[in-house]
Amino acid sequence: MNELKAVQTRQRGNIAWLSWNGSMLALKWKDRKESFALSTIHSSPVPRPAPRVCDNEDGDDEEGDDATVTRSAKERGQWRQVTISCPYLIKDYNKFMGGSGPT
Questions:
Q1: CA angle (75, 37, 82) in 5-degree steps
Q2: Cα separations in angstroms, 29 against 36, 44, 53, 87
Q3: Helix (H, G, I), strand (E, B) or coil at 29
Q4: Do strands 52-53 and 78-85 pair parallel, antiparallel, or not at all (unpaired)?
Q5: 45: closest CA among 70, 14, 75, 69?
Q6: What pTM was estimated for this model as a whole?
Q7: What does the pLDDT look like over 11-22, one tens digit per residue?
């Protein structure tokens, strides 16, 4: 686990991870701060294909949930919406646990 802590995640969206026999995943993800998580239900942080949803009347497919989050960031003195990658482990945690706690 110390190897994971030592890896530098400098930019938002950077991921470092370790997996043991596909049964446990240790993950470090950089948003505003570094987040650490352990999971036994996620095998790797590689994004899975987004499910295709067809809810509209004309039958056009819409993309499902992808592995990104939108954040506000200041660029050249202006606040803008920036899309960054987010591992499914973090997205699932936020979805089912109601957000992240202190790390």
A1: 15
A2: 7, 13, 28, 8
A3: strand
A4: unpaired
A5: 14
A6: 0.66
A7: 888 888 888 887
Kind and range of the H or E element at 25?
Answer: strand 24-30
Q: Please tell me what DSSP assigns to residue 23.
A: T
Whose tokens are 């202190």? That residue is 102
Cα–Cα distance measured from residue 99 to residue 86, given in angstroms and rounded to the nearest whole number: 14
In whole angstroms, what is the distance from residue 38 CA to residue 28 CA? 9
Greatest alpha-carbon span in the chain: 53
Residue 88 backbone phi and psi in degrees, to 5: -65, -30
Give 35-99 as a DSSP string: EEEEESS---SSPPPPPEE--STT---EE---SEEEEEEEETTEEEEEEEE--HHHHHHHHHHTS
